[in-house]
Amino acid sequence: MLAIRLDAEIEQDLALLAKKRGSNRSALVREAIVRYLEDNEDMELARQAKNGTTSRKTLKQLREELGLDS
User: Fold this and answer.
1) What DSSP letter does each residue of 28-46 carry, written as one string?
2) How confident is the model over 12-61, as pLDDT tens digits?
């Protein structure tokens, strides 16, 4: 369990959005946290992939290698 403090404006915006979606504040906060964690994981994977790249090719070279340019 986690307790967080929000300023009044954020709490009000969250309450309005929850009402609009027919949800509750906790569900929206959970969804936001999950998305944030997934985005960070994606960014880390992208960084690792970029750092592991040893060669670079132009789009034209890739298209030719894949037989997309006839």
Assistant:
1) HHHHHHHHHHHHHHHHHHH
2) 999 999 999 999 999 999 999 999 999 999 999 999 888 887 778 899 99
Q: Does residue 1 lie in a domain region?
A: no
Domain membership flag for residue 25: yes
| Distances in whole angstroms, Cα of residue 21 to Cα of each of 3, 4, 18, 26, 32 | 23, 22, 5, 13, 14
Domain hosting residue 50, numbered range: 8-65
CA 60 to CA 67: how far, in whole Å?
A: 11
Cβ within 8 Å of residue 46, ≥6 positions away: none
- Separation between Cα atoms, residue 33 and residue 16, nearest integer Å: 18
Q: How many domains does the chain have?
A: 1
Rounded CA separation 16/38 (Å): 25
